[in-house]
């Protein structure tokens, strides 16, 4: 497996570009936000460099061995692969788990933009390792917003420091994404509840990385109404904690088995049993029967971090394919001195595949960091109206980040195997691991079909298209900026972008006119893909315009800047060019799928 090189230069280029395109965004705009005044460009550079160094030097060397060794359940304790515990200790000691948390709670008070950039590099270096730490960010978000002051005092500090880790316990054997069917019980008993039930697919349900694990569990109280209206949320620690913070007895919960998975072998995915004896002690978070609303704070952050995992695994697959293409000699090329053996990167079809991987991964990164900027602005912008606008945009972009990026990451990893040819199908090269690891990202934290349904149902129809119309209007306005319109090298990119934008506008209009129903649900995923392509193409076009200006002024690395032009052109030719077809599919209404009957799919 090729070494991992953190894409710090590209991340910095993206963030610098945001500063130029939209006030308060990017490396220069962050420090204009209240609470981020001390986040200078020097601090941003230092954080990116250190996060990248940790990824390359500590996490990447454990990626292949973690995949081979996997996790083990021994005498009721889950053992992670060799080196994982030590790496986690370094991560916690350096304070990385408290990046976005308030300094008052022991955090560093850094922007989400920087945190997302760091998460990308850690996911890229070792996706399996990154999963337990990433859940911490989501759990901390939930505790900060919904826990009582006493609960925050008792648990938050150790979660932020990394001394304690966290899980999200939703899924049950009979209830996958349909949480209204869950059966785990919560019986009140004094100031706590007794929890009993089984949960499956629990990332980090048990491990040897931390001294305690804080389980966030959805369950039903005895008189709860049926369905999702009757779900409550509970904090259930592995080790009970006394009021003064000292550890107590082991709680009545355990990992009964580990799932045998296609990928992410270094991450323990547990079947958890709560309350086999007296019942696990849990503490209510929020109000009874309001647990799902509380859990969405964690779920939405997790969906964003899963999208970033897609960016990271795509980058790793691209780097490995590029390294192989440069060193693998096969075939010959005609030169002035006759035929000469050549590396496969000189073959046009291999360059096509690499350009496809590069452009899609860079579009993914730009969207993820742009969305992180929206999150920072939704929390920190001094103007209330602006915060509300950015919150709408954040909510709109969340399912696109999760689904469009992870769909694309699978494609990138799959193409990486193709670049390797037969050796890509051999496990020893490591290319297959990227595809195996990437495949889960389209499934967990809400399948990509669920994300598409959320996009059209809640984020488009739910607000009468306000958020998506605002974003599409911004794209149209920025595409008419003089520096973009006058860039001859990007004329074709702009042509394709405007065509795709028109298709997105028309598709949105059709959805709003049609309203809820199976016809719209059947085209939700292609609509999400259409929006992802248009937004990604727009962000790449903006980057290319800046790169073109840099080339004209002889300001910057020529090959790097020309690579930005390559990415924008490749993305336009490959993906924006297909937006009209997606638009036609959407306006066709998905009638075939919407009207299909169960018996039409054949007898088995």
What topology does this entry show?
Blueprint: H1 8-21, H2 26-29, H3 41-59, H4 63-69, E1 72-74, E2 77-79, H5 84-93, H6 112-125, H7 127-146, H8 149-161, E3 164-169, E4 185-189, E5 192-203, E6 212-219, E7 232-237, E8 239-241, E9 247-250, E10 253-258, E11 269-274, E12 280-285, H9 291-327, E13 329-335, E14 338-343, H10 348-380, H11 384-420, H12 431-439, H13 448-460, H14 466-478, H15 482-485, H16 491-514, H17 518-522, H18 524-552, H19 558-574, H20 579-587, H21 591-595
Parallel strand pairs: 3-6
Antiparallel strand pairs: 1-2, 4-5, 5-11, 5-12, 6-7, 7-12, 8-9, 10-11, 13-14
Helix pairs in contact: 1-10, 3-6, 6-7, 6-9, 6-10, 7-8, 7-9, 9-10, 9-11, 9-12, 10-11, 10-18, 10-19, 11-12, 11-13, 11-14, 11-18, 13-18, 14-16, 16-18, 16-19, 16-20, 18-19, 18-20
Molecular structure report:
With 604 residues, the protein is an alpha+beta fold. It has a domain at 309-594: Up-down Bundle (Butyryl-CoA Dehydrogenase, subunit A, domain 3). The protein has 21 helices and 14 strands. The chain has helices at 8-21, 26-29, 41-59, 63-69, 84-93, 112-125, 127-146, 149-161, 291-327, 348-380, 384-420, 431-439, 448-460, 466-478, 482-485, 491-514, 518-522, 524-552, 558-574, 579-587, 591-595; strands at 72-74, 77-79, 164-169, 185-189, 192-203, 212-219, 232-237, 239-241, 247-250, 253-258, 269-274, 280-285, 329-335, 338-343. The strands form 4 sheets. Strands 3, 4, 5, 6, 7, 10, 11 and 12 form an 8-stranded mixed sheet that branches. Strands 1-2 form a two-stranded antiparallel sheet. A hairpin with a 2-residue loop joins strand 1 (72-74) and strand 2 (77-79). Helix 11 (384-420) packs antiparallel against helix 13 and helix 11 packs across helix 14. It is globular. The model has no long low-confidence stretch (mean pLDDT 94).
